[in-house]
User: Which sequence fits this backbone?
């Protein structure tokens, strides 16, 4: 998703993550994770095998995997756990064909999990406090199943709130915090229901008084940004900009909205932009 | 234990053994985003999943495996497992949405789920990002070995015959 459809988020990740001590290494040969909703339905064993091949590429280099996407984290972590839990023999037999062998020595983490472990470093490196009220949306695939993802409480997620608070911003409680983004409604062409869901979600967010929404998943980002633009043609609601957490982190490190590629977003809001321009020390 | 009788029930339970523990209490439906936006009655989606040719129900494709249903299930069942097995059956029979077949094709030919267009290439260049050079030949080998390759070939043959 990110490399093809939202490359500006890859650009931001490559700038911001090294600033908080996370070194990124590109691995040749990585492919789609593959996607846990579509590709998995074609053939679950092939889904595991392709995921395992990606994990092997990192393992062969002695590296762990950091994902920028909830879907990638879900696929790779589910595969890692299933293979360690007994599927290794079967999948390695299939992988032989490609010259790889899964050993099970790699850790897979979503970038928010890595950053949650570096929260003191983030507070230390932060240059400006962000005086913003923020509605966070962690995203379903990073939360569940909890025994696989081991990230946060799926019914009451707080990790992303803590990461937002570390930048001096105020995370808000809102009624529909764990309501999903509804991406599959859009991909199956059920736009009426997709817009209805977005209307409900954004009404709840607006009522809580949010200046912007912060997400950690590119699919949620796309649904809230492009989806909000499309939804706004049917329902009249005030616009709320959507940021990936890495962009918010960049803003607190002193980068401009332009450097954080806000120009690439469909939904922009002047009040939000003014608050960023006036951000204090 | 599952009381409802229908022709493909045995096949369903063979693919997803744990579904036999479902009492259709519909607690999961109160958490289900598909039920919330696509059904008037809270328990209809659950009943629909245990019926003849449930794999033709288009709503299985709106389930994105958020697992909120599993959090409330009193029988420790993970309903997306059932939906996953229905999706696999739908895929084999050619009932999946065209976008799913297109995505699988894209992954096996280009290595990524979305077509690499000239627009995304120029956007990457503008952002000083490295070119996307992905070799998907390993993925085709894996698809062959798991039987997915054969499944796709058969489906294409059927579509041509129609």
Assistant:
């Amino acid at each position: 998703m990110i490399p093809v459809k939202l490359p500006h988020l890859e650009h931001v990740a490559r700038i911001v993550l090294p600033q908080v001590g996370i070194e990124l290494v590109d691995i040749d040969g990585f492919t789609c994770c593959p996607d846990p909703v579509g590709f998995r339905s074609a053939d679950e064993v092939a889904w595991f095998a392709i995921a395992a091949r990606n994990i092997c590429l990192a393992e062969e280099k002695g590296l762990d995997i950091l994902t920028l996407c909830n879907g990638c984290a879900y696929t790779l972590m589910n595969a890692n756990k299933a293979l360690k839990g007994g599927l290794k023999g079967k999948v390695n037999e299939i992988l032989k064909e490609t010259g790889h062998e899964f050993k099970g020595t790699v850790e897979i983490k979503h970038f928010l999990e890595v950053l949650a472990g570096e929260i003191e470093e983030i507070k230390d490196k932060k240059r400006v406090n962000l005086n913003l009220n923020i509605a966070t949306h962690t995203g379903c695939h990073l939360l569940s199943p909890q025994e696989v993802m081991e990230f946060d409480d799926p019914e009451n997620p707080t990790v992303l709130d803590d990461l937002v608070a570390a930048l001096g911003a105020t995370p808000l409680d809102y009624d529909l915090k764990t309501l999903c983004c509804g991406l599959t409604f859009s991909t199956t062409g059920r736009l009426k229901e997709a817009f209805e869901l977005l209307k409900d979600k954004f009404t709840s967010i607006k009522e809580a008084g949010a200046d912007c929404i912060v997400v950690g998943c590119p699919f949620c980002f796309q649904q809230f940004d492009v989806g909000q633009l499309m939804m706004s043609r049917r329902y009249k609601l005030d616009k709320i900009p959507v940021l990936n957490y890495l962009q918010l982190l960049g803003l607190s490190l002193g980068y401009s909205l332009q450097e954080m590629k806000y120009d690439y977003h469909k939904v922009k809001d002047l009040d939000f932009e003014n608050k960023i321009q006036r951000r204090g020390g | 234990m599952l009381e409802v009788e229908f022709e493909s029930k045995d096949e369903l339970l063979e693919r997803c053994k744990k579904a036999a523990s479902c009492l259709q209490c519909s607690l999961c439906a109160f958490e289900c985003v598909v039920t919330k936006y696509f059904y008037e009655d809270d328990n209809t989606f659950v009943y629909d999943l245990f019926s003849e040719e449930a794999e033709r129900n288009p709503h299985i494709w709106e389930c994105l495996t958020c697992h909120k249903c599993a959090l409330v299930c009193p029988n420790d069942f993970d309903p997306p497992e059932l939906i996953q097995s229905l999706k696999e059956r739908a895929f084999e029979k050619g009932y999946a949405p065209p976008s799913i077949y297109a995505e699988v094709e894209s992954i096996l030919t280009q290595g990524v789920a979305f077509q690499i267009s000239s627009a995304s290439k120029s956007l990457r260049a503008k952002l000083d990002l490295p070119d996307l050079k992905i070799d998907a030949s390993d993925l085709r080998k894996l698809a062959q070995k798991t039987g997915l390759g054969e499944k796709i070939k058969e489906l294409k043959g059927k579509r041509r015959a129609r």
Summary: Chain A is about 50% helix and 5% strand. The longest strand of chain A covers residues 133-137.
